[in-house]
Amino acid sequence: EFFRFELYYRRRRATTYVYFVVIFLTSFITITSPTLSVVGTSDGTNANAPYIIAVLMVVLSFLFTLITSSLVGVAVIRDVEHEMAPVIFTTPIHKGSYLFGRLAGSLFILILLNTGIIFGALLAYLVGSILPWEITWYTKAVLPFNAWAYLQPFLIFSVTNIVITGSLFFAAGALVRKPMIIYSQGIALVMLYQLANIF
């Protein structure tokens, strides 16, 4: 019931669709931009090479940790913010069902939202050769379409990242229940990642 409620709640929220559009456009723009490039590529790399797609999944799924933090955080503190927690916690609801239902629903929505990376990449490869601006590393020798080249890195990198970070954010939110801390988790993780890169 909590899982279904989470899906129903997210389906009715405008932010859900805004998140998907942001993810989709970021993926499309990253590939088709004349100034941006995927890390570790050269001008001779095919635009739809499996390596390019895998790196794109890693980079963008980590960037969208900020969305993971906000979406999972809202799920865990929603009842406290709306002052429904005393009502819910006095009913005969199993704590595991309540928490796991909210977490599973949020993670499922996040996985669906992050498919925008795949759709943005697919659109870029379909229209890349006819765009009015020049893509610096888009070559005419585009590789044949391979669905597994999109699905494998999505399942290995994006879904794994969503489940791990989403679970950590959810656990922290369930323990702390303070909106400021919940919303700043994603920013803190990105900053730690940047510091780790420096060292």
The low-confidence runs, each spanning 5 or more residues with pLDDT under 50, are none
Main structural class: mainly alpha
Average the pLDDT over all residues and give the rounded result. Answer: 81
Radius of gyration: 19 Å
**Strand portion:** under 5%
Q: How many strands, what sense, and barrel or not for the largest sheet?
A: none
Helix residue percentage: over 70%
Order of helices and strands: HHHHHHHH
Number of strands: 0
Number of helices: 8
Distance between the termini: 46 Å
Outline: elongated
Please provide a written account of the structure.
This protein is mainly α. 74% of the residues lie in helices and 0% in strands. The chain has 8 helices and no strands. The longest helix is centred in the middle third of the chain and has 33 residues, at 95-127. The radius of gyration is 19 Å and the shape is elongated. It starts with a helix and ends with a helix. The relative contact order is 0.19. The mean pLDDT is 81.
List keywords for this structure.
199 residues, mainly alpha, 8 helices, elongated
Put the structure in a nutshell.
The chain is built from eight helices and no strands. By secondary structure, it is mainly alpha-helical. The model has no long low-confidence stretch (mean pLDDT 81).
